[in-house]
Amino acid sequence: MSLEQLTYIFVVGSFFIYIAIAFWSRASSTREFYVAGGGVTPLANGMATAADWMSAASFISLAGIISFAGYDASGYIMGWTGGYVLLALLLAPYLRKFGKFTVPDFVGDRYYSNVARIVAVICVMFISFTYISGQMRGTGIVFSRFLQVEIDTGIMIGMAVVFVYAVLGGMKGITYTQVAQYCVMIFAFTVPALFLTFSMTGHLLPQTGLGATLDNGLPVLDHLDGLVTELGFASFTQGSKSSIDMFFITAALMFGTAGLPHVIVRFFTVPRVRDARISAAWALVFIAVLYSSIPAVAAFGRINLIETVNGADNKGTPYEQMPQWFKKWENAGLIAWYDHNADGRTQYAAGDAFTGRQHKPIYWGASDDKVARNFYFNQRHVINPSSGEFDPQIQPFANEIYVDPDIMVLANPEIAELPDWVIALIAAGAMAAALSTAAGLLLVIATSVSHDLLKKTIRPNITDRQELLAARAAAMVAVLVAGYLGMNPPDYVAAVVALAFGLACASFFPAIIMGIFYQRMNKYGAISGMLVGLLSTIGYIVYFKFMGGEPEDWLLGISPEGFGALGMVLNFIVAYLVAHLTPEPPKHIQQIVQDIRVPRNSGSAYY
Amino acid sequence: MNQNTDMAQRYWRRNLQIIFSYLVIWFVVSFGCGILFVDELNQFNLFGFKLGYWFANQGSILVFSILTIGYAVRMNRLDNEFDVHE
What we know:
The structure holds 2 protein chains of 2 kinds.
Chain A: H1 3-24, H2 30-35, H3 42-53, H4 56-69, H5 74-98, H6 103-110, H7 114-147, H8 151-201, H9 206-209, H10 220-230, H11 243-258, H12 261-264, H13 273-291, H14 294-310, E1 317-318, H15 324-331, E2 335-337, E3 345-346, E4 401-403, H16 407-410, H17 412-415, H18 420-458, H19 464-487, H20 493-517, H21 523-546, H22 563-581, H23 587-596
Antiparallel strand pairs in A: 1-3, 2-4
Helix pairs in contact in A: 1-8, 1-18, 3-8, 3-13, 3-18, 4-14, 4-18, 5-11, 5-13, 6-7, 7-8, 7-18, 7-19, 7-20, 8-14, 8-18, 8-19, 10-14, 11-20, 11-22, 18-19, 20-21, 20-22, 21-22
Chain B: H1 2-36, H2 38-41, E1 45-46, E2 49-50, H3 51-81
Antiparallel strand pairs in B: 1-2
Helix pairs in contact in B: 1-3
């Protein structure tokens, strides 16, 4: 059976499973649609949370980012796992005890104000739509890479699948599909990682294999450090970012993670407060399985790439001797080669092989165009090579290679010479990662519209049936908008994601924390804090990312990615000061705060 | 009622102490060992890793997982102790 057939079977088969699960566990009331009826076991919720959280970016891109950035990318590892400590200790148990349906619900009720609720709804919408467009794009990319369909067609197929199971199943449906999706994605990521580790080091586990000693007597990371510094790159294990910038970026990612509405809402689905604590722990364990093997995949991938391209003698490999995967991904446009020194050998070193925005290769002709092939070696013809100048003090030759970071995960099975079914599995796993996150976000958007805007603000008198209908309609509209955003992604995807984390960090996190831990916090403090956090973060990111602000002018040397953490501090300070100048919250609100701190009677909050 | 409120106060203070001590560990392994003191720790070697790098990319995840599990176990026991469990 061909690879393509296998991939189709795996991907289509997994789609059928997801839809079947959603049909079997479809929602019949708003409570089931919003929080799966509140009856999910901690273990299942942990898996669902892990799938909800780990997106196409975690699955496909993170290993590649770490592979090229080394220690500088540690903020992602620490931030995206450390946020769960905050969730488990500071948020999940109390929000579960509060026991409503959404994050704006908490903000609106605790701060007895529809203004606060609307501010929260706007944040939810912004964060979730930013995120979901990336996920839709992710499904399209997976389709185009593994199944040779157009990205836009892939996005439409992804939309159709999510549409069926999120609209039909609601939270109840997506919870159990996410459990299945977690299993698919963890299997798909771990199997190639284990094989790769074993073939490189003889160790079974990536986590210990990363510290193994290679045949040449050097530990993996020392070997890698030697390789990259010889080629003019920064050391892999030592960073080039300043400590303060690393500190703030990590903090923004960490507190942002804890403030993401689609993750928080998962803790409303378990029956009791103790289950919220346990499922937060499970979620982190399930996430840790994948995240802790990512650095190993990243390091082995980089070593493989360097040794394949530059050859054993570090002089470059003759192009005709390059392995099949190199040529395959070259055809897909994820790798490109321009022979700067015209020696017929591929050479990889520091510097950009191509010019222009993002230094991506621009091809002349399509990948199957025989005429648009380079005269000498029949590789794809590129029209924007860089000058090929280099400093011989720093590196032995000019860089001739462009590598898309995603290649580190996508090409792994081929590099390790694994059977075709493992490659097909990666496709299904990447799809599971993208779909599970998209569904979770979709639901948060739909709930904000039908519950927070419609039921709680505009039309309080609608029945449960009407609200459920509205939720489904909102989900449908959200799928269409998300699909549109996926097909026409905003120009600066990375900058927009920084914005989503920054906003979650600077707006939600402080508002929720003070709502639980600081009884004296009133609506004036909370709203002004949220607005200050929100506006300062948006202003800083927009100025430096979109209006041409220069890095020299960064406040205290903090990059826009890390500013959310400072926005959070501003939020806390302003909220505290304003709350002290204005009347304390009404007695019944203070009673709510007392109530959520004690686990007993959490079920009653619903009725 | 008064006795209940007093009980709830003591339960909450105990909880805050536990949270605080766990967050100190959380801060030390990630922001401390992984970022602020990473260069100093990188002088040491642990099973083939530079220690600072290991904390940033492996150790922190391990400690985070232990912290959340520990907190769940500890608090679920504390709930029973103060008779506020469900």
